[in-house]
Design brief:
Largest sheet: 6 strands, mixed
Distance between the termini: 45 Å
Strand order of the largest sheet: 6-5-4-7-8-9
CATH topology of the largest domain: Rossmann fold
Strand content: 5-15%
Helix content: 25-40%
Number of domains: 2
Radius of gyration: 33 Å
Order of helices and strands: EHHHEEEHEEHHEHEHEHEHH
Structural class: alpha/beta
CATH class of the largest domain: Alpha Beta
Number of strands: 10
């Protein structure tokens, strides 16, 4: 916290210089001993000049100075923590990453794993309303099928057209797809990834782990699997990517979990993109307390009498 302390409007601190000069000049002009300096010895002035003998340690001038300095600090905008922008979407963007390989055409889940997964994507986007979503498909290579859009109908249309036969390369480029999703989300201020896969190639585990070490983007894995042994195998891949594994269900319980996880999953970007919170208002009560004596009758009389 201390290391991140700074001022949002540091140019206001420059006001301390002219403020000091003005207050110093006013202080000297209100000092009853000023005209006699150089004529009367300094050590005798307090006794010879009326009104100079009694000086309060904390009088009006000290409060004027303290109030002015504190006001400048407040205007400078002290900050030490971040806050989400008020103009940011309440619902974070979602990048849907779908594995499109022959294994996804397995019919252990009717009609098959790929079609049922696309149906789940439709249900999830329908609940998210007009929130941004992107679609990425991968097999041996990863491809941005649809960049972030608020039109869920377009995502549905392209997702429904996915087929292993149209993928240019066979294989499992999971790490490439996740990295592409991460970059796509970064362009719109961050979000979360929904990774739909029925397995992770062992050769990809290290690459996925390396990707995870470079990003904080939340990932949820939707597994279109019915076989428990396959689920356990996929679990290891999910652990490497620090992802929560959610098994595709016949009802909407999986969508419920995904909706809650994705709704506000937009972490602070690694480059510190969130705005800094102006914490100057915390000093306002102190400023008001310093100004209270000025409302007391006769408090400023010594200054007024000398001016």
């Amino acid at each position: 916290m201390i290391g991140e302390f700074h001022f949002l409007r540091p140019w206001w601190l420059a006001a301390l210089l002219p403020l000091g000069l003005v207050l110093g000049a006013l202080r000297r002009s209100s000092d009853a001993t000023t005209p006699w300096r150089g004529i009367v010895a300094d050590h005798l002035l307090p006794y010879l000049v009326q009104g100079a003998a009694v000086k309060k340690r904390f009088g009006p001038w000290w409060l004027v100075v303290a109030s002015a300095v504190l006001a400048v600090i407040i205007l400078s905008g002290p900050a030490w923590k971040r806050e989400p922008s008020p103009f940011a979407d309440d619902v974070a963007a979602l990048a849907v990453v779908i594995k499109v390989t022959p294994s996804m055409e397995t019919e252990d889940i009717a009609p098959n794993r790929l079609v049922r997964s696309v149906q789940k994507v439709h249900d999830l986007l329908e609940r998210r309303g007009g929130s941004k979503a992107a679609l990425i498909a991968y097999a041996g290579s990863a491809h941005l099928v649809m960049p972030p859009t608020t039109d869920g109908g377009i995502i549905d249309s392209f997702a429904g057209s996915l087929d292993p036969k149209i993928m240019p390369e066979e294989g499992d480029a999971a790490s490439e797809a996740l990295e592409l999703a991460d970059k796509t989300l970064a362009a719109v201020g961050g979000g979360s990834i929904l990774w739909i896969t029925d397995g992770v190639n062992p050769d990809e585990v290290a690459a996925v782990s390396l990707w995870r070490s470079k990003t904080r983007t939340p990932v949820k894995v939707l597994a279109p699997l019915s076989d428990e042994s396959e689920m356990k195998t996929l679990q290891s891949g999910a652990e490497v990517s620090s992802s929560e594994l959610i098994q595709l269900t016949a009802d909407d319980s999986d969508i419920d979990r995904l909706e809650r996880a994705a709704k506000f999953s937009s972490p602070a970007p690694m480059d510190g993109g969130d705005r800094w919170q102006d914490s100057g208002y915390w000093l306002m009560p102190l400023l008001l307390l310093l100004m209270l004596p000025f409302f007391r009758k006769g408090w400023m009389q010594p200054l007024a009498a000398r001016s």
